[in-house]
Amino acid sequence: MTTEELTQINYNTSFLFKALIRETTVYNYYVELKDDVLTEDGYFDLVRVPDLRVAGTGQFIKKLRLEKSLSQSKFAKLFEITRSKLNHWERDNRTIPLRLLVKMAETGGISKAKIYSLIDQGKFKTKNALPVRIEKIHDIINYFSPHKSKYGANWEITVIQCADEILSKINSLLHVNIKSYPYGKRIKSKELYTFLTTFFHYPEVPKITPPLTEEVKLWHEKGVDLKRAVIIPCLQSDGAIGYTPPNLRFYGESKILHNYVVDAMYYEYNELPSSYLWKENESEDCYTTAYQKKSMKGIIAEVMKLAGNTKTSPAKGQTVEEYLIEPQPHLNYLMNAPATEQGIALRIWAATEGSITITASGGYTKPKLEIGCAHPDLMMQLKQLGKRFNIRFTTIRTKDSWSGFMVLQSTGLRSVLNFLKLGGFINGVEISSSSPYHEDIAKDVYLLGILEFNTRERENSQLRNLSRANIHQAINKIINNKEYHTADYYINYFS
Questions:
Q1: Does pLDDT of 160 surpass 50?
Q2: Most distant CA pair in the chain: distance in Å?
Q3: Are 358 and 472 in contact (CB under 8 A)?
């Protein structure tokens, strides 16, 4: 809204003003004019500002008194003040409370609007030259963010990052001192802070509104403990915990898995993230969703009590011996949990650390399901969980990991079908962008494509002679043409 448009407003009607201050990946922060705070003439109703004082009113007050033919003592008594105070005000030695000035003026037949007009003209002055009309600050109001300070005074105004000409305008218009600190630019002015919070709201509007997924909300409604089923598995597989300040973080390429974390944290703890799907730079494939706030302290304590730890390998520069002294992660919290929670947790691990590819067995192409894990205890417990659902994993070792363990692997068709019965991969979670054959294909769809190719091999023996590369191409064609069936179809087909 331009200044010209603002001057044409009929202030007798409801007047709305709203501007965006800043935005994050989670919230939009606005400044919004409160209802009914402007007079009919379009002035800020400054008497609403607590303890607001004005200067330069001496001759005006004296004229009011003389027009009533009153001595200072009698005039002072009329307003229940001391003669000494009145004398100081008439000599312009001190500022006068605006509310009292308006009261004095009204006894002389002078309206509040006239007082505001004199302030607007600069004849009466407030400490920070507060604007009386919104036209004067409409183009800078969105650079102010008043808040309770952590550093001394309980009132402070953050100046949102802006051009030098905006800073100059703020300084010249409001007579304030903008100071630079390591945490940004600040104005320390109680008068300006009180003015802003008297006339404006500062709403924060979420840009994300759970549920972002269908499954997590459904699990919550069915009474699933989302800490055990979703949050801790996500943190142990692709997450991290920090303590100064307390924070939880989840990393990964899949936006869908980030949405699972957001929904689980919302329904379990009524928490929205501090940052959502954030990238340090756009060239990265990995997103970060973080919760960095005081309320995380209690949640972290709860997670650590249940799961031992979320750190599943030595940190960079840390020896194995040093790492093993620390509390170790485990799945004890899942081993006696309801089967529904165990199954969801296993699916989460398959989505975050799992992969699906092909292997040859008995003359047919079959799916090979893997879950990456180098921590021995976690690996054994994941293997036990799989066994409870008749998903048989073998343990694959390597010399390249800190523990000598690398991955859990299942190549049995029956195990893969049992994984499908459990729910299979989280829908839409794509194969890693580093895949040479199936980048941007969802794991759940790729598994169905493999099973469809297997059924065709059984009906057409020539397909069994294709090279591995040609098999990948054939599966991609099935997927691209959507020639695969539902999971239930293959569960029944292979039964």
A1: yes
A2: 117
A3: yes
Three-state DSSP string of the chain:
CCHHHHHCCCCCCCCCCEEEEEECCCEEEEEEECCCCECCCCEECHHHCCCCEEECCHHHHHHHHHHCCCCHHHHHHHCCCCHHHHHHHHCCCCCEEHHHHHHHHHHCCCCHHHHHHHHHCCCCECCCCCCCEHHHCCCCHHHEEEECCCCCCCCEEEECCCCHHHHHHHHHHHCCCEEEECCEEEECCHHHHHHHHHHEECCEEECCCCCCCCHHHHHHHCCCCHHHHHHHHHHHHHEEEEECCEEEEEEECCHHHHHHHHHHHHHHHCCCCCEEEECCCCCCCCEEEEEECCCHHHHHHHHHHHHCCCCCCCCCCCCHHHHHHCCCCCCHHHHCCCHHHHHHHHHHHHHHHEEEEEEEECCEEEEEEEEECCCHHHHHHHHHHHHHCCCCCEEEECCCCCCCEEEEEECCHHHHHHHHHHCCCCCCCECCCCCCCCCCCEHHHHHHHHHHHHHHHHHCHHHHHCCHHHHHHHHHHHHHCCCCCCHHHHHHHCC
pTM value is: 0.85
User: What average pLDDT does this structure show over 201-215?
Assistant: 96
Model confidence band, residue 10 (pLDDT cutoffs 50, 70, 90) = low
Average pLDDT of span 220-231: 98
All domains in the chain, ordered by first residue? 1-44+134-201 (no CATH), 53-125 (1.10.260.40), 215-301 (3.10.28.10), 339-493 (3.10.28.10)
User: What band does 12 get if pLDDT is binned at 50, 70 and 90?
Assistant: very low
Bond into 367 cis (ω within 30): no
pLDDT tens digits for 165-193? Answer: 999 999 999 999 999 988 889 999 999 99
pLDDT digits (tens, 9 = 90+) for 72-88: 999 999 999 999 999 99
Burial of residue 401 (CB within 10 Å: 0-12, 13-18, 19+) is middle
Return the pLDDT at 434: 67
Q: How far apart are CA 150 and CA 462, in angstroms?
A: 73
Distance CA 272, CA 26 (A): 8
